[in-house]
Amino acid sequence: MAIPSIDTIIRDAIAQRVFPGAVAVVARGDETLHCAAYGATAYEAPESVPVTPATIYDIASLTKVFTATGALRLYDTGALDLDAPVGAYLARFRVRDITVRHLLTHTSGLDVRLSVLRHAGREGLLNAVYAAVPRHRPGSKVAYTNINSLLLGEIVATLHGAPLDVALDDLVIQPLGLRETRFRPDAALVTRIAPTEFDYEWRGRLVHGSVHDESAHVLGGVAGHAGLFSTAAELVSFCRSWLATPEDHNHRHVLRRATMTLATTNHTPGMALPCGLGWMLDRAGFMGAAPAGSFGHTGFTGPALVIIPHYRVIVVVLSNRTYPRRDTPRHHPVTAAIVNAALAGIA
Q1: What is the pLDDT of residues 131-142, one digit of tens each?
Q2: Could you list the residue range(s) of the whole structural domain that residue 81 is in?
Q3: Residues recognised as catalytic
Q4: CA proximity to 276, closest of 299, 253, 292
Q5: Best exposed site among 37, 65, 116, 266 by fewest CB in 10 Å?
């Protein structure tokens, strides 16, 4: 089954060079309403191949919702207290009034641009992160910054007693049966991976098969805020786990229903942006006309996912909008239009 208007939206975006290609999936419950691949992995270039539903994308900041899910899994087991200070789990972090909940809701007050630290090396970057101090009072303002999810990833790894890639594999990826969601994909997979950007200034090469985010690259390709690669189908499975109930035996889930409800509740009322625990809530900029209670996330390289509990609908869009060079983002209105088309298709 397909939703023809989505075909038109994405083909128009490709023609306008918003991105060279994309995969879009719309699911409702167990049913897939739309699944299609469009365009190519690059514009006129030797490395370009047609996009297929199995194309692997650098999902950038969608990594954050996997990190948040890992943290919430530890919360479910009693290992993590959301209102404990970050320093209770990370001895090198000295700010006493920033809590785990602040990290999950981007209200820590920390505002460090990690990409400018790419020349500092791994230890230099981590030293700057652990020495960071808030620019405004924790809990008073939403400021979406990568440092929050990086620190959350450090907590997950510390509590699990393993590097973050192993921790998320144990806590989230394997329990959900995901086989192609991973950090640092094998070189043999490069022909299935969409390239992200020509990085002339720093790496001096096309970024293809390794993480696009500079700070995650410095950290070895594994970080709480970026580094995962995945496919549209596996992201749909991940999203379905957030709609699953204990009685739903068709889809796996790793969190208690009460925890999923807590995570998708607005924890920043009265602030500029509604935030759940790791989730963006009710963001019309990429969610379009999705009804209140919808949640999702976006990534710098082009991916987006939207979960609409009211209709049990999931929308996943993967693209490499940063190819060949990053520009002013134009992909969010495309995602919003796809969401609107999906909603019109079920009306």
Answers
A1: 999 999 999 999
A2: 4-346
A3: 61
A4: 292
A5: 116
